[in-house]
Structure formats: structure tokens, C-alpha cells
UniProtKB/TrEMBL annotation, chain A:
<keyword id="KW-0547">Nucleotide-binding</keyword>
<dbReference type="InterPro" id="IPR003439">
    <property type="entry name" value="ABC_transporter-like_ATP-bd"/>
</dbReference>
<dbReference type="InterPro" id="IPR005670">
    <property type="entry name" value="PstB-like"/>
</dbReference>
<keyword id="KW-0067">ATP-binding</keyword>
<dbReference type="InterPro" id="IPR017871">
    <property type="entry name" value="ABC_transporter-like_CS"/>
</dbReference>
<dbReference type="GO" id="GO:0005524">
    <property type="term" value="F:ATP binding"/>
</dbReference>
<protein>
    <submittedName>
        <fullName>Phosphate ABC transporter ATP-binding protein PstB</fullName>
    </submittedName>
</protein>
<dbReference type="InterPro" id="IPR003593">
    <property type="entry name" value="AAA+_ATPase"/>
</dbReference>
<feature type="domain" description="ABC transporter">
    <location>
        <begin position="20"/>
        <end position="261"/>
    </location>
</feature>
Automatic annotation (TrEMBL), chain B:
<keyword id="KW-1003">Cell membrane</keyword>
<feature type="transmembrane region" description="Helical">
    <location>
        <begin position="66"/>
        <end position="87"/>
    </location>
</feature>
<protein>
    <recommendedName>
        <fullName>Phosphate transport system permease protein PstA</fullName>
    </recommendedName>
</protein>
<keyword id="KW-0472">Membrane</keyword>
<dbReference type="Pfam" id="PF00528">
    <property type="entry name" value="BPD_transp_1"/>
</dbReference>
<keyword id="KW-1133">Transmembrane helix</keyword>
<feature type="transmembrane region" description="Helical">
    <location>
        <begin position="99"/>
        <end position="125"/>
    </location>
</feature>
<dbReference type="InterPro" id="IPR005672">
    <property type="entry name" value="Phosphate_PstA"/>
</dbReference>
<feature type="transmembrane region" description="Helical">
    <location>
        <begin position="260"/>
        <end position="280"/>
    </location>
</feature>
Length: 266, 294
């Protein structure tokens, strides 16, 4: 049984509109409960950081939001995930459709071994978009959004695997944006990158925030405090505290959060 | 004995052992080459086999081997692809997958003569397919399937899981991810596996003796009527392959130049199998470079 921990969740401001919310979201791997009922509300066009030590359940939670945990045979996800007034955690929901609206960028850059252009257009073409002109526009637009256009505009037919790690990650962001998602989930997108690439990605995220709602898992507390509007702290499969980022880092309401953000553990 | 000395001795012994395999292969190839090269000429490669006199060729046998290979690949490749994709991508019940895998292991360890006799009973006798290319191709499929499945599954498994996630996270279905992300990614590996299996099948004799038959009716390469006995494309005609021919002239052949014919045939067989192997490596590397843009 999970031990009872003190928790604190500050609701979003009254005029804030919600892009996504969860109610009592639980994840079981076999008989073991890995996530103990998380209820959170994500504000539109804001960045929310999920922080916590390894194994705290933050990645498990993030991967539940676009139903990626469905791919794990032993995983069982219960509770509600509300997106546009629909509970997308129901078996009859088309997960492929969900993932078009809720895009994802992974910890390690995972471009396809195709050309830079094809990495972006491939999924669109599978969706039936054949118009060359339109596809070219989307390639340019998304690469610009991911701040990669200037570096690769002359090499669009080159293999994506020839790019550096940071460039590959930005290509993965562009690829996710091409599907025109509402929400972008990022699972430690900068943890495999050098500081300069990390800074580039963070700048990119600030730009993206105008059009997208971003939920990011990060190990790096400086990063969370730099980039995010809201922060949720996870500990041992439980969501301990959710608040505006500056409050989490300056005046947390729960002792455990205070211990974590001041570096006492984790 | 000090550790340095022990290491030196062990290294030497291991080197000698490793050299053995090289020596065996080279000795074998050299022997086959020099024994067979005298017989090889255009007439031998394209001419018809003789039953009693010297100077027969292996044209029909060579064609039969290739045709049988193509036909059995046409049957076994789609099957193997399906099985491998199931095992690697879809099998969620690990017990079922493990059961299928162990069945494939057993199937691949069956002696080929046993598979051949099974093919004889089932395809030749029971399904009235007679001694024919089709019987042979179906029997070879049984023989070939485990090799192909394992080769393709291994290739699929080399693709990182992050590629599957990338596809799914873009809203692609599992099938789209498999066919448009995973398979292109490991296509070089799949092709290598297929060609290597083809090499094994090409040299197979025991499974074909009682299925494709031991006689090679003369072929007329201008006859395109696939139901005619002399048409090379007729899948219902008996067809002695190169490997079966080698066995036949040595065991019950009546031709005076049996030694020369079998030596020449062996050389052709080995060269073709070598070409398959080299082709597998070459194509695999080339495709990989092209796909990854290195």
C-alpha cells in the first residue's frame, strides 16, 4: 500500500482555460500500482513541468496522457483523462486519433532513418496529404518553429541521422508539430543533449508556447524553473504538489517539495 | 607459470583454432575448384545431360535449381514475413510466441531427408502433385520457413524500440509503423537473411530427391506453354536439380564421366552459393548506406 503523503494542489486561476486534465489517474504494471491517482489540470498555452526523482512516476504519468502506455502489455491505466470534454482513456477511443492531437517528443532523439524532409512529411502523407506545395510549406514552417530551418534548408534530402543530437531532437519536435497537435508532451527532451543544444530547445519551447500547450518531464530543476509556468512535483508514484512554478521553488506548501527543490534528495 | 605466459599460450592456441576454419574452407574451395574447372565450358553449363554417354551438360539442372528456388521463395517469403512480424511486433501473449518459436526450432532441426519423405507422402502421393517442381517447392518451403522466419525476426529485432514509439506517437497505426518505419529500417538485414536462406535452399538435395524427382526431361526454352512437359516454366514437370544431379550421377549414374560431371556440377553449385553470400553482404551494406545516408 502507498503511504499517505501530504499533498497540495492549487487550482488554475478562474480565467484560465484547461487544455487537458486528469482525474484519479492510476497506472498498474501487473499487480503493482506505479501511479496512485493523479488529478491535474493543464492550462492552455502554458508550459507545465513535471519534476521528481527517478521512479517517481512522472514519466509514467506523461506517457499515459497520449495512451503510449497502452503499448506495454502489462500496463493498466484507470481514471479519467479529459480532453475537449471527452474522456480519452476509454477503450473505444481511437488512440491513433488521440496521438494526432497530443504529440510527443522523447528523451532520446528518434528520427526515422529517412531524409530530413521525409521525417516531417511521412506521417502527413500516410494521412492522405499529397499536395507537394502544401507539404513543402509545412516542412519549412515546422522547421522554422523548431529553429532548425536555417541550418538544414539546403540539405532537406540528406539523411536525418547525419544531424547532430540537438538538431535531431529539434527535427523530432518539428515532426511532432507537423501533425498540428494541440498539446505537446516532452519526456526529458534535453537530457541527452549538450548545454548549447539544451538552451536552443528551451528557446524553441518559449516560442511554441504561443500556439501549443506543453507538458514536460524534466530532471533538471533549473530547467523547470527557467521555462515553465506551472510545476507538479511527483514522489513515489504520487503527485505531491502542483502550483505556479515560482511558488514551488520559493514557497512550497509541502515539506517534501521543499526538501526536493532545495536538493535534499533526488 | 606467470599470467603473462599463460595468456600467451592461450592466445596462440586460440589463433591456431581460428585458423583451422580458414584452412578447412580454403582447402575445400581449392579442391573443388581444381577438380571441377576442367569440366566447365559453355556446353557443360547449357547442354542437356546424357544418360549413358560421356559429355553431358547440366543446363536443365541449373535452370531447375534456380526456378525451384524462385518458386519456393514465392511461397515461403510472404509466409515467413507474416510469421516474423507476428512474433516480433504483435505477439502480446509471450507463451504463444514462445510455443511458436520452439516449434520453429524443432522444424529447423528436422533432417532434410525426413522432410523430403514427408513431402513425398503429402504432396506427391496424397495431393497427386507427382514428382514435380511444385511438390519440391512446397517441401522446400517447410525446410526454408524456419531459416527465413528466424532471419527476418532477427532483423526486425535490431530496430530500436524508440522507432516504434516515434511512429505510434505520430498517430500512425501499428501496421503502418511496421510496414513504413520498421521494415524499411531493417530491409538490409531482411534481404541478407533471405539471400542466405536462398543459398541454403539452392544446395539442398535430400528434401528434393523424392519430391521434385530425379529426372530432367529435356527443356525447350522457346516453349512458353506452362502446361507442356518441355516448357521450362511448367511447375508440374519433374525437375532434377543440380544438387540432386550430383547425388544421382555418383550413386546410380551410368555415364562414364560421372566423376568429371559431378566435380563440374559441384563447382557450379559452390560458386552460385558463394555468389549468393557475397551478394547478400554487398546488397545489405549498400542498402544500409543508402537508407542511413552515410
Amino acid at each position: 500500500m502507498a503511504q499517505e503523503l501530504a499533498t497540495f494542489t492549487r487550482p488554475l486561476a478562474k480565467d484560465a482555460s484547461s487544455a487537458l486534465s486528469t482525474e484519479d489517474l492510476r497506472v498498474h504494471y501487473g499487480a503493482k500500482e506505479a501511479l496512485h491517482g493523479v488529478s491535474l489540470n493543464f492550462e492552455r498555452h502554458k508550459i507545465t513541468s513535471l519534476i521528481g526523482a527517478s521512479g517517481s512516476g512522472k514519466s509514467t504519468y506523461l506517457r499515459s496522457l497520449n495512451r503510449m502506455n497502452d503499448t506495454i502489455a502489462t500496463a493498466q491505466i484507470t481514471g479519467k483523462i479529459m480532453y475537449r470534454n471527452v474522456n480519452i482513456n476509454l477503450p473505444q477511443v481511437d488512440v491513433y486519433e488521440v496521438r494526432k492531437h497530443i504529440g510527443m517528443v522523447f528523451q532520446r532523439p528518434n528520427p526515422f532513418s529517412k531524409s530530413i524532409r521525409d521525417n516531417i512529411t511521412f506521417a502527413l502523407e500516410r494521412r492522405g496529404l499529397k499536395d507537394r506545395q502544401k507539404l513543402a510549406e509545412i516542412v519549412e514552417q515546422t522547421l522554422k518553429q523548431a529553429s532548425l530551418w536555417e541550418q538544414v534548408k539546403d540539405d532537406l534530402d540528406k539523411s536525418a541521422l547525419a544531424l547532430s543530437g540537438g538538431q535531431q531532437q529539434r527535427l523530432c519536435i518539428a515532426r511532432a508539430l507537423a501533425m498540428k497537435p494541440d498539446i505537446l508532451l516532452m519526456d526529458e527532451p534535453a537530457s541527452a543533449l549538450d548545454p548549447i543544444s539544451t538552451a536552443n530547445i528551451e528557446t524553441t519551447m518559449q516560442e511554441l508556447k504561443k500556439d501549443y500547450t506543453i507538458i514536460i518531464v524534466t530532471h533538471n530543476m533549473q530547467q523547470a524553473s527557467r521555462i515553465s509556468d506551472y510545476t507538479a512535483f511527483f514522489h513515489m508514484g504520487q503527485m505531491i504538489e502542483f502550483d505556479q512554478t515560482r511558488r514551488i521553488f520559493t514557497r512550497p506548501q509541502v515539506q517534501l517539495t521543499e526538501n526536493y527543490v532545495s536538493g535534499h534528495f533526488g | 607459470m606467470n599470467p603473462k605466459r599463460t595468456d600467451k599460450i592461450a592466445t596462440t592456441i586460440i589463433y591456431v583454432m581460428a585458423t583451422t576454419i580458414v584452412v578447412i574452407l580454403i582447402a575445400l574451395l581449392l579442391y573443388i575448384f581444381f577438380a571441377g574447372i576442367k569440366t566447365i565450358n559453355w556446353h557443360f553449363l547449357t547442354g542437356a545431360a546424357k544418360s549413358f554417354q560421356a559429355g553431358g551438360g547440366i543446363g536443365a539442372q541449373l535452370f531447375n535449381s534456380l526456378y525451384l528456388l524462385v518458386l519456393s521463395m514465392l511461397i515461403s517469403l510472404p509466409l515467413a514475413l507474416g510469421i516474423a512480424i507476428y512474433l516480433s511486433e504483435y505477439a502480446s501473449a509471450q507463451k504463444v510466441a514462445a510455443l511458436i518459436r520452439s516449434m520453429i526450432e524443432v522444424l529447423s532441426s528436422l533432417p532434410s531427408i525426413v522432410v523430403g519423405l514427408f513431402g513425398f507422402l503429402v504432396f506427391v502421393i496424397n495431393f497427386h502433385l507427382q514428382f514435380s517442381i511444385l511438390s519440391g517447392a512446397l517441401t522446400l518451403t517447410i525446410f526454408n520457413l524456419p531459416l527465413l522466419v528466424r532471419g527476418i525476426e532477427d532483423a526486425l529485432q535490431t530496430v530500436s524500440n524508440s522507432q516504434r514509439e516515434a511512429g505510434l506517437a505520430l498517430g500512425l497505426s501499428k501496421w503502418e509503423t511496421v510496414t513504413h518505419v520498421i521494415i524499411p529500417e531493417c530491409l538490409p538485414g531482411i534481404i541478407t537473411g533471405v539471400i542466405l536462406a536462398a543459398g541454403r535452399v539452392f544446395g539442398e538435395a535430400a528434401a528434393l530427391i523424392y519430391t521434385a524427382g530425379q529426372s530432367a526431361p529435356p527443356l525447350n526454352f522457346s516453349n512458353w506453354n506452362i502446361l507442356s512437359l518441355t516448357s521450362p516454366l511448367n511447375p508440374f514437370r519433374p525437375a532434377e536439380t543440380l544438387a540432386v544431379h550430383i547425388w544421382k550421377v555418383n550413386s546410380e549414374g551410368l555415364i562414364p564421366d560421372a566423376t568429371a560431371v559431378s566435380a563440374g556440377s559441384s563447382l557450379v553449385l559452390v560458386v552460385v552459393v558463394l555468389i549468393f553470400n557475397i551478394l547478400a553482404r554487398y546488397l545489405g551494406n549498400k542498402l544500409y548506406k543508402r537508407l542511413t545516408g552515410e
